[in-house]
Design brief:
The structure holds two protein chains of two kinds.
Chain A: E1 3-14, E2 17-28, E3 32-36, H1 43-49, E4 60-68, E5 71-72, H2 80-86, E6 87-90, H3 101-111, H4 118-128, H5 132-135, H6 148-161, E7 166-170, H7 178-191, E8 196-200, H8 204-210, E9 213-218, E10 221-227, H9 228-231, H10 238-244
Parallel strand pairs in A: 3-8, 3-9, 6-7, 7-8
Antiparallel strand pairs in A: 1-2, 1-4, 4-5, 9-10
Helix pairs in contact in A: 3-6, 4-6, 6-7
Chain B: H1 6-39, H2 42-50, H3 52-73, H4 77-110, H5 117-142, H6 146-154, H7 156-176, H8 181-213
Classes of the chains: A alpha/beta, B mainly alpha.
Chain lengths: 249, 221
Protein backbone atom coordinates (compact mmCIF):
# COMPACT_ATOMS: atom_id res chain seq x y z
CA UNK A 1 0.00 0.00 0.00
CA UNK A 2 1.14 3.56 -0.55
CA UNK A 3 0.03 6.85 0.90
CA UNK A 4 -1.38 9.26 -1.68
CA UNK A 5 -2.54 12.08 0.56
CA UNK A 6 -1.30 13.14 3.98
CA UNK A 7 -1.95 15.95 6.38
CA UNK A 8 0.70 17.27 8.73
CA UNK A 9 -0.36 19.45 11.65
CA UNK A 10 -3.31 20.61 9.58
CA UNK A 11 -5.27 23.38 11.30
CA UNK A 12 -8.09 25.30 9.67
CA UNK A 13 -9.52 28.54 10.99
CA UNK A 14 -12.69 30.41 10.10
CA UNK A 15 -11.78 33.89 11.32
CA UNK A 16 -10.85 33.38 14.94
CA UNK A 17 -12.57 29.99 15.21
CA UNK A 18 -10.34 26.96 14.84
CA UNK A 19 -12.42 24.28 13.10
CA UNK A 20 -9.63 21.71 12.66
CA UNK A 21 -6.81 21.36 15.13
CA UNK A 22 -3.37 20.03 14.16
CA UNK A 23 -4.48 16.87 12.37
CA UNK A 24 -2.06 14.24 11.03
CA UNK A 25 -3.62 11.72 8.65
CA UNK A 26 -2.37 9.37 5.93
CA UNK A 27 -4.71 8.19 3.20
CA UNK A 28 -3.77 4.96 1.49
CA UNK A 29 -4.20 4.47 -2.24
CA UNK A 30 -7.17 2.38 -3.40
CA UNK A 31 -8.82 2.44 -0.03
CA UNK A 32 -11.96 4.06 1.27
CA UNK A 33 -11.33 6.20 4.33
CA UNK A 34 -14.36 7.43 6.26
CA UNK A 35 -14.28 10.54 8.40
CA UNK A 36 -16.94 10.49 11.10
CA UNK A 37 -17.89 12.72 13.99
CA UNK A 38 -20.75 14.82 15.33
CA UNK A 39 -21.94 17.99 13.60
CA UNK A 40 -19.41 20.78 13.86
CA UNK A 41 -16.47 18.45 14.54
CA UNK A 42 -14.53 19.71 11.53
CA UNK A 43 -14.85 16.67 9.28
CA UNK A 44 -16.37 18.45 6.26
CA UNK A 45 -13.97 21.36 6.75
CA UNK A 46 -11.07 18.92 6.67
CA UNK A 47 -12.46 17.18 3.57
CA UNK A 48 -12.86 20.45 1.70
CA UNK A 49 -9.28 21.37 2.54
CA UNK A 50 -8.02 18.29 0.67
CA UNK A 51 -8.64 19.96 -2.69
CA UNK A 52 -8.65 23.59 -1.50
CA UNK A 53 -12.43 23.96 -1.79
CA UNK A 54 -12.31 25.66 1.61
CA UNK A 55 -10.61 28.63 -0.04
CA UNK A 56 -13.98 29.54 -1.52
CA UNK A 57 -15.18 30.36 2.02
CA UNK A 58 -14.13 33.89 3.04
CA UNK A 59 -12.02 34.16 6.20
CA UNK A 60 -10.61 30.63 5.95
CA UNK A 61 -7.01 30.19 7.01
CA UNK A 62 -4.99 26.98 6.73
CA UNK A 63 -1.91 26.04 8.76
CA UNK A 64 0.18 22.93 8.35
CA UNK A 65 0.40 20.86 5.19
CA UNK A 66 -1.73 18.73 2.91
CA UNK A 67 0.71 16.60 0.96
CA UNK A 68 -0.48 15.13 -2.33
CA UNK A 69 2.17 12.88 -3.82
CA UNK A 70 4.79 14.68 -1.79
CA UNK A 71 3.79 18.27 -2.64
CA UNK A 72 2.01 20.60 -0.26
CA UNK A 73 -1.16 21.54 -2.15
CA UNK A 74 -1.12 24.94 -0.43
CA UNK A 75 2.22 25.87 -2.02
CA UNK A 76 1.87 29.04 -4.09
CA UNK A 77 2.82 27.33 -7.35
CA UNK A 78 -0.01 24.75 -7.09
CA UNK A 79 -2.93 25.60 -9.38
CA UNK A 80 -6.15 24.89 -7.43
CA UNK A 81 -8.17 24.26 -10.60
CA UNK A 82 -5.71 21.67 -11.84
CA UNK A 83 -5.56 20.23 -8.31
CA UNK A 84 -9.35 19.79 -8.24
CA UNK A 85 -9.23 17.85 -11.47
CA UNK A 86 -6.94 15.35 -9.75
CA UNK A 87 -8.82 15.39 -6.47
CA UNK A 88 -12.52 15.49 -7.32
CA UNK A 89 -15.46 16.19 -5.05
CA UNK A 90 -18.97 14.72 -4.84
CA UNK A 91 -21.41 16.66 -2.70
CA UNK A 92 -24.23 15.80 -0.35
CA UNK A 93 -27.03 16.80 -2.70
CA UNK A 94 -26.80 15.71 -6.31
CA UNK A 95 -25.95 18.85 -8.27
CA UNK A 96 -26.07 18.03 -11.98
CA UNK A 97 -25.76 20.92 -14.42
CA UNK A 98 -29.06 21.93 -16.01
CA UNK A 99 -27.87 20.37 -19.21
CA UNK A 100 -28.28 17.04 -20.92
CA UNK A 101 -26.91 13.85 -19.39
CA UNK A 102 -24.29 13.79 -22.17
CA UNK A 103 -23.24 17.38 -21.58
CA UNK A 104 -22.94 16.81 -17.83
CA UNK A 105 -20.09 14.39 -18.49
CA UNK A 106 -18.48 16.23 -21.38
CA UNK A 107 -18.64 19.79 -20.13
CA UNK A 108 -16.49 19.27 -17.07
CA UNK A 109 -13.96 17.30 -19.10
CA UNK A 110 -13.82 20.02 -21.77
CA UNK A 111 -13.20 22.89 -19.39
CA UNK A 112 -10.48 20.81 -17.73
CA UNK A 113 -8.77 20.50 -21.09
CA UNK A 114 -9.45 16.82 -21.62
CA UNK A 115 -9.53 16.17 -25.36
CA UNK A 116 -10.97 12.77 -25.96
CA UNK A 117 -13.50 10.83 -27.95
CA UNK A 118 -16.38 12.30 -25.97
CA UNK A 119 -18.85 9.56 -26.96
CA UNK A 120 -16.43 7.03 -25.57
CA UNK A 121 -15.75 9.15 -22.46
CA UNK A 122 -19.49 9.44 -21.74
CA UNK A 123 -20.03 5.71 -22.18
CA UNK A 124 -17.02 4.75 -20.03
CA UNK A 125 -17.87 7.24 -17.28
CA UNK A 126 -21.51 6.16 -17.14
CA UNK A 127 -20.55 2.49 -17.20
CA UNK A 128 -18.14 3.09 -14.32
CA UNK A 129 -21.05 4.22 -12.17
CA UNK A 130 -23.42 1.53 -13.50
CA UNK A 131 -25.70 4.16 -15.06
CA UNK A 132 -25.08 3.47 -18.75
CA UNK A 133 -27.78 0.84 -19.22
CA UNK A 134 -30.35 3.09 -17.57
CA UNK A 135 -29.64 6.22 -19.62
CA UNK A 136 -27.95 5.17 -22.88
CA UNK A 137 -31.13 5.80 -24.86
CA UNK A 138 -31.79 9.24 -23.40
CA UNK A 139 -28.41 10.92 -23.29
CA UNK A 140 -29.87 14.09 -24.76
CA UNK A 141 -32.48 14.39 -22.03
CA UNK A 142 -31.99 16.83 -19.18
CA UNK A 143 -30.08 15.46 -16.20
CA UNK A 144 -32.87 16.83 -14.05
CA UNK A 145 -35.19 14.15 -15.42
CA UNK A 146 -33.21 11.48 -13.52
CA UNK A 147 -34.06 10.22 -10.03
CA UNK A 148 -32.01 11.48 -7.07
CA UNK A 149 -29.94 8.30 -6.95
CA UNK A 150 -29.30 8.44 -10.70
CA UNK A 151 -28.37 12.13 -10.46
CA UNK A 152 -25.82 11.34 -7.75
CA UNK A 153 -24.30 8.56 -9.85
CA UNK A 154 -24.21 11.03 -12.76
CA UNK A 155 -22.32 13.50 -10.55
CA UNK A 156 -19.84 10.76 -9.65
CA UNK A 157 -19.50 9.91 -13.37
CA UNK A 158 -18.89 13.61 -14.07
CA UNK A 159 -16.13 13.64 -11.47
CA UNK A 160 -14.61 10.46 -12.93
CA UNK A 161 -14.63 11.88 -16.46
CA UNK A 162 -11.95 14.34 -15.38
CA UNK A 163 -9.80 11.34 -14.49
CA UNK A 164 -9.06 12.17 -10.86
CA UNK A 165 -6.86 10.12 -8.57
CA UNK A 166 -8.79 10.85 -5.40
CA UNK A 167 -12.54 11.23 -4.93
CA UNK A 168 -13.74 13.26 -1.96
CA UNK A 169 -17.33 12.51 -1.00
CA UNK A 170 -19.24 14.74 1.41
CA UNK A 171 -22.19 12.70 2.71
CA UNK A 172 -22.94 11.49 -0.82
CA UNK A 173 -25.96 9.40 0.13
CA UNK A 174 -27.61 11.45 2.83
CA UNK A 175 -30.26 12.69 0.41
CA UNK A 176 -30.90 9.28 -1.11
CA UNK A 177 -33.29 6.42 -0.36
CA UNK A 178 -31.88 3.08 0.94
CA UNK A 179 -31.81 1.35 -2.47
CA UNK A 180 -29.99 4.27 -4.12
CA UNK A 181 -27.68 4.42 -1.11
CA UNK A 182 -26.75 0.77 -1.43
CA UNK A 183 -26.08 1.23 -5.17
CA UNK A 184 -23.69 4.11 -4.41
CA UNK A 185 -22.02 2.01 -1.70
CA UNK A 186 -21.58 -0.91 -4.12
CA UNK A 187 -20.22 1.54 -6.65
CA UNK A 188 -17.69 2.93 -4.18
CA UNK A 189 -16.44 -0.57 -3.50
CA UNK A 190 -15.92 -1.01 -7.23
CA UNK A 191 -14.37 2.45 -7.72
CA UNK A 192 -11.73 1.99 -5.06
CA UNK A 193 -9.96 -0.46 -7.35
CA UNK A 194 -8.98 2.56 -9.49
CA UNK A 195 -9.38 5.52 -7.14
CA UNK A 196 -8.72 6.54 -3.57
CA UNK A 197 -11.92 7.59 -1.81
CA UNK A 198 -12.32 9.79 1.24
CA UNK A 199 -15.88 10.05 2.50
CA UNK A 200 -17.46 12.15 5.20
CA UNK A 201 -20.56 10.48 6.55
CA UNK A 202 -22.98 10.91 9.40
CA UNK A 203 -24.13 7.35 8.91
CA UNK A 204 -21.91 5.22 11.10
CA UNK A 205 -23.29 1.96 9.74
CA UNK A 206 -22.29 3.22 6.30
CA UNK A 207 -18.76 3.98 7.49
CA UNK A 208 -18.60 0.51 9.06
CA UNK A 209 -19.95 -1.15 5.90
CA UNK A 210 -17.86 0.44 3.21
CA UNK A 211 -14.64 1.91 4.55
CA UNK A 212 -11.23 0.33 5.10
CA UNK A 213 -10.14 2.96 7.61
CA UNK A 214 -12.00 5.39 9.78
CA UNK A 215 -11.00 8.67 11.38
CA UNK A 216 -13.06 10.02 14.26
CA UNK A 217 -13.15 13.79 14.74
CA UNK A 218 -14.42 15.64 17.78
CA UNK A 219 -14.36 19.41 18.35
CA UNK A 220 -11.77 19.84 15.61
CA UNK A 221 -9.42 17.19 17.00
CA UNK A 222 -8.75 13.88 15.33
CA UNK A 223 -9.36 11.52 18.24
CA UNK A 224 -8.69 8.16 16.65
CA UNK A 225 -7.70 6.82 13.25
CA UNK A 226 -7.36 3.17 12.35
CA UNK A 227 -8.71 0.18 10.51
CA UNK A 228 -12.50 0.36 10.42
CA UNK A 229 -12.84 -3.13 11.85
CA UNK A 230 -10.83 -2.04 14.89
CA UNK A 231 -12.62 1.28 15.33
CA UNK A 232 -16.04 -0.40 15.33
CA UNK A 233 -15.02 -3.47 17.30
CA UNK A 234 -12.29 -2.40 19.71
CA UNK A 235 -11.86 1.37 19.69
CA UNK A 236 -8.97 2.57 21.83
CA UNK A 237 -10.51 5.83 22.98
CA UNK A 238 -13.61 6.02 25.19
CA UNK A 239 -14.82 9.07 23.24
CA UNK A 240 -14.75 7.06 20.02
CA UNK A 241 -16.64 4.23 21.68
CA UNK A 242 -19.26 6.58 23.08
CA UNK A 243 -19.77 8.24 19.71
CA UNK A 244 -19.97 5.12 17.55
CA UNK A 245 -22.24 3.49 20.14
CA UNK A 246 -24.56 6.45 19.71
CA UNK A 247 -24.19 7.66 23.29
CA UNK A 248 -23.72 11.23 22.14
CA UNK A 249 -23.85 13.08 18.90
CA UNK B 1 -23.88 17.20 22.82
CA UNK B 2 -26.95 15.13 23.52
CA UNK B 3 -26.98 11.93 25.56
CA UNK B 4 -28.64 9.39 23.33
CA UNK B 5 -29.81 5.80 22.98
CA UNK B 6 -31.45 5.76 26.39
CA UNK B 7 -34.01 3.22 25.14
CA UNK B 8 -31.24 0.92 23.90
CA UNK B 9 -29.38 1.23 27.20
CA UNK B 10 -32.59 0.38 29.05
CA UNK B 11 -32.96 -2.75 26.94
CA UNK B 12 -29.33 -3.74 27.56
CA UNK B 13 -29.83 -3.23 31.30
CA UNK B 14 -32.99 -5.34 31.17
CA UNK B 15 -31.08 -8.11 29.39
CA UNK B 16 -28.28 -7.96 32.00
CA UNK B 17 -30.96 -8.30 34.66
CA UNK B 18 -32.44 -11.37 32.95
CA UNK B 19 -29.01 -13.00 32.71
CA UNK B 20 -28.50 -12.29 36.39
CA UNK B 21 -31.83 -14.01 37.08
CA UNK B 22 -30.85 -17.00 34.95
CA UNK B 23 -27.43 -17.25 36.59
CA UNK B 24 -29.01 -16.99 40.03
CA UNK B 25 -31.53 -19.69 39.15
CA UNK B 26 -28.82 -22.07 37.86
CA UNK B 27 -26.73 -21.43 40.98
CA UNK B 28 -29.75 -21.94 43.25
CA UNK B 29 -30.57 -25.27 41.58
CA UNK B 30 -26.97 -26.36 41.99
CA UNK B 31 -27.04 -25.44 45.68
CA UNK B 32 -30.28 -27.32 46.21
CA UNK B 33 -28.80 -30.36 44.46
CA UNK B 34 -25.69 -30.25 46.63
CA UNK B 35 -28.00 -30.08 49.64
CA UNK B 36 -30.04 -33.01 48.31
CA UNK B 37 -26.78 -34.93 47.76
CA UNK B 38 -25.67 -34.36 51.34
CA UNK B 39 -29.08 -35.06 52.90
CA UNK B 40 -29.99 -37.92 50.53
CA UNK B 41 -33.10 -35.84 49.85
CA UNK B 42 -34.53 -37.44 46.70
CA UNK B 43 -37.61 -35.21 46.83
CA UNK B 44 -35.49 -32.04 46.67
CA UNK B 45 -33.50 -33.61 43.81
CA UNK B 46 -36.76 -34.34 41.96
CA UNK B 47 -37.81 -30.69 42.33
CA UNK B 48 -34.55 -29.53 40.74
CA UNK B 49 -34.97 -31.93 37.82
CA UNK B 50 -38.50 -30.83 37.12
CA UNK B 51 -37.37 -27.18 37.00
CA UNK B 52 -34.68 -27.71 34.34
CA UNK B 53 -37.11 -26.77 31.58
CA UNK B 54 -37.43 -23.26 33.08
CA UNK B 55 -33.70 -22.72 32.48
CA UNK B 56 -34.01 -23.81 28.85
CA UNK B 57 -36.88 -21.35 28.42
CA UNK B 58 -34.81 -18.55 29.98
CA UNK B 59 -31.97 -19.28 27.56
CA UNK B 60 -34.27 -19.13 24.53
CA UNK B 61 -35.86 -15.87 25.69
CA UNK B 62 -32.53 -14.15 26.32
CA UNK B 63 -31.12 -15.35 23.00
CA UNK B 64 -34.19 -14.02 21.18
CA UNK B 65 -33.96 -10.65 22.89
CA UNK B 66 -30.24 -10.39 22.14
CA UNK B 67 -30.86 -11.28 18.48
CA UNK B 68 -33.58 -8.64 18.23
CA UNK B 69 -31.23 -6.02 19.71
CA UNK B 70 -28.54 -7.01 17.19
CA UNK B 71 -31.02 -6.72 14.33
CA UNK B 72 -32.71 -3.51 15.37
CA UNK B 73 -30.03 -1.52 17.20
CA UNK B 74 -26.87 -2.48 15.31
CA UNK B 75 -24.62 -2.23 18.36
CA UNK B 76 -20.88 -1.78 17.90
CA UNK B 77 -17.72 -2.06 19.98
CA UNK B 78 -18.38 -2.69 23.70
CA UNK B 79 -22.15 -3.05 23.26
CA UNK B 80 -21.64 -5.58 20.47
CA UNK B 81 -19.13 -7.60 22.47
CA UNK B 82 -21.47 -7.56 25.48
CA UNK B 83 -24.32 -9.01 23.43
CA UNK B 84 -22.07 -11.65 21.86
CA UNK B 85 -20.82 -12.54 25.36
CA UNK B 86 -24.40 -12.75 26.68
CA UNK B 87 -25.39 -15.19 23.93
CA UNK B 88 -22.40 -17.39 24.74
CA UNK B 89 -22.91 -17.18 28.51
CA UNK B 90 -26.57 -18.28 28.44
CA UNK B 91 -25.51 -21.32 26.43
CA UNK B 92 -22.94 -22.18 29.12
CA UNK B 93 -25.51 -21.59 31.87
CA UNK B 94 -27.94 -23.93 30.12
CA UNK B 95 -25.28 -26.67 30.01
CA UNK B 96 -24.47 -26.12 33.70
CA UNK B 97 -28.21 -26.53 34.33
CA UNK B 98 -28.13 -29.85 32.45
CA UNK B 99 -25.21 -31.12 34.54
CA UNK B 100 -27.00 -30.03 37.71
CA UNK B 101 -30.04 -31.96 36.56
CA UNK B 102 -27.86 -35.02 35.94
CA UNK B 103 -26.42 -34.76 39.46
CA UNK B 104 -29.97 -34.51 40.83
CA UNK B 105 -30.91 -37.68 38.96
CA UNK B 106 -27.86 -39.43 40.41
CA UNK B 107 -29.03 -38.40 43.91
CA UNK B 108 -32.41 -39.97 43.12
CA UNK B 109 -30.81 -43.17 41.81
CA UNK B 110 -28.43 -43.59 44.76
CA UNK B 111 -31.31 -42.96 47.16
CA UNK B 112 -30.54 -43.79 50.76
CA UNK B 113 -27.79 -46.33 50.05
CA UNK B 114 -24.79 -45.98 52.37
CA UNK B 115 -22.12 -47.68 50.29
CA UNK B 116 -21.55 -44.63 48.09
CA UNK B 117 -21.43 -42.06 50.92
CA UNK B 118 -17.76 -41.18 50.48
CA UNK B 119 -18.04 -40.83 46.72
CA UNK B 120 -21.21 -38.74 46.98
CA UNK B 121 -19.44 -36.49 49.47
CA UNK B 122 -16.59 -36.06 47.01
CA UNK B 123 -19.03 -35.33 44.17
CA UNK B 124 -20.89 -32.75 46.23
CA UNK B 125 -17.56 -31.11 47.10
CA UNK B 126 -16.79 -30.75 43.38
CA UNK B 127 -20.26 -29.33 42.79
CA UNK B 128 -19.73 -26.96 45.70
CA UNK B 129 -16.51 -25.66 44.15
CA UNK B 130 -18.28 -25.28 40.79
CA UNK B 131 -21.06 -23.37 42.50
CA UNK B 132 -18.59 -20.96 44.12
CA UNK B 133 -16.91 -20.46 40.74
CA UNK B 134 -20.26 -19.81 39.07
CA UNK B 135 -21.15 -17.20 41.68
CA UNK B 136 -17.88 -15.35 41.05
CA UNK B 137 -18.10 -15.70 37.26
CA UNK B 138 -21.55 -14.09 37.22
CA UNK B 139 -20.27 -11.29 39.48
CA UNK B 140 -17.39 -10.77 37.03
CA UNK B 141 -19.81 -10.72 34.08
CA UNK B 142 -22.16 -8.17 35.56
CA UNK B 143 -19.35 -6.08 37.06
CA UNK B 144 -17.16 -6.11 33.90
CA UNK B 145 -14.42 -7.46 36.15
CA UNK B 146 -11.70 -9.07 34.05
CA UNK B 147 -9.42 -9.72 37.05
CA UNK B 148 -12.17 -11.58 38.89
CA UNK B 149 -12.90 -13.60 35.74
CA UNK B 150 -9.25 -14.63 35.45
CA UNK B 151 -8.90 -15.57 39.15
CA UNK B 152 -12.17 -17.52 38.98
CA UNK B 153 -11.06 -19.49 35.92
CA UNK B 154 -7.85 -20.37 37.76
CA UNK B 155 -9.97 -22.23 40.35
CA UNK B 156 -10.87 -24.82 37.70
CA UNK B 157 -7.59 -26.60 38.38
CA UNK B 158 -8.91 -27.45 41.86
CA UNK B 159 -11.96 -29.07 40.25
CA UNK B 160 -9.68 -31.07 37.94
CA UNK B 161 -7.69 -32.30 40.94
CA UNK B 162 -10.86 -33.24 42.84
CA UNK B 163 -12.17 -34.97 39.72
CA UNK B 164 -9.06 -37.15 39.47
CA UNK B 165 -9.39 -38.05 43.14
CA UNK B 166 -13.04 -39.09 42.92
CA UNK B 167 -12.39 -41.08 39.75
CA UNK B 168 -9.77 -43.07 41.68
CA UNK B 169 -12.28 -43.58 44.47
CA UNK B 170 -14.91 -44.85 42.04
CA UNK B 171 -12.47 -47.23 40.34
CA UNK B 172 -11.46 -48.58 43.73
CA UNK B 173 -15.13 -49.10 44.65
CA UNK B 174 -15.66 -50.96 41.36
CA UNK B 175 -12.73 -53.22 42.14
CA UNK B 176 -13.91 -53.92 45.66
CA UNK B 177 -17.58 -54.63 44.85
CA UNK B 178 -17.92 -55.48 41.13
CA UNK B 179 -21.64 -56.15 41.42
CA UNK B 180 -22.17 -52.41 42.05
CA UNK B 181 -20.59 -51.53 38.71
CA UNK B 182 -23.81 -50.14 37.28
CA UNK B 183 -24.23 -47.49 39.96
CA UNK B 184 -20.50 -46.78 40.00
CA UNK B 185 -20.58 -46.22 36.23
CA UNK B 186 -23.28 -43.65 36.75
CA UNK B 187 -21.20 -41.96 39.47
CA UNK B 188 -18.27 -41.91 37.06
CA UNK B 189 -20.41 -40.17 34.43
CA UNK B 190 -21.62 -37.70 37.04
CA UNK B 191 -18.02 -36.96 38.07
CA UNK B 192 -17.15 -36.29 34.43
CA UNK B 193 -20.13 -33.98 34.05
CA UNK B 194 -19.13 -32.03 37.16
CA UNK B 195 -15.64 -31.65 35.72
CA UNK B 196 -17.29 -30.28 32.54
CA UNK B 197 -19.39 -27.98 34.70
CA UNK B 198 -16.15 -26.32 35.82
CA UNK B 199 -15.13 -25.98 32.17
CA UNK B 200 -18.38 -24.19 31.34
CA UNK B 201 -17.87 -21.76 34.22
CA UNK B 202 -14.39 -21.18 32.79
CA UNK B 203 -16.03 -20.48 29.41
CA UNK B 204 -18.11 -17.79 31.11
CA UNK B 205 -14.90 -16.27 32.47
CA UNK B 206 -13.42 -16.31 28.95
CA UNK B 207 -16.53 -14.50 27.70
CA UNK B 208 -16.05 -11.84 30.38
CA UNK B 209 -12.44 -11.23 29.28
CA UNK B 210 -13.59 -11.03 25.65
CA UNK B 211 -16.42 -8.67 26.56
CA UNK B 212 -14.19 -6.31 28.51
CA UNK B 213 -11.06 -6.37 26.35
CA UNK B 214 -12.07 -7.76 22.96
CA UNK B 215 -9.40 -10.43 23.34
CA UNK B 216 -10.17 -14.13 22.99
CA UNK B 217 -8.40 -16.15 25.67
CA UNK B 218 -8.23 -19.89 26.20
CA UNK B 219 -8.44 -20.66 29.91
CA UNK B 220 -9.51 -24.29 29.63
CA UNK B 221 -5.99 -25.68 29.30
Amino acid sequence: MSVVLSTRKLSIHYGTFRAVNSVDLDFEANEITAIIGPSGCGKSTALRSFNRMNELIPGTRVEGEVLFQGTNIYDSEVDPVELRSRIGMVFQKPNPFTKSIFQNIVWGAKINGIHADYDQLVEESLKAVALWDEVKDKLKQSANSLSGGQQQRLCIARALAIQPEILLMDEPTSALDPISTSRIEDLMDELKKKYTIIIVTHNMQQAARISDRTAFFLNGDMIEFGLTKDIFYKPRDTRTENYISGRFG
Amino acid sequence: MIQARIHFQDQMNQLSHEILLMGTRVEEDLRKTIQACRDKDTELARTVRSGDRDINTMQAEIEDKAAILLATQQPVAGDLRRLVAFIKVVSDLERIGDYTSHLAKTVMKVGDRNKEDDIMRSLSAIADKGCAMLNQAMAALLGNDEDLARSTAAMDIEIDTMHKKVMAEILEAMRLVPKNVEIEARLMRTANFLERLGDHVTNICESVVYMVSGVHVEMNE
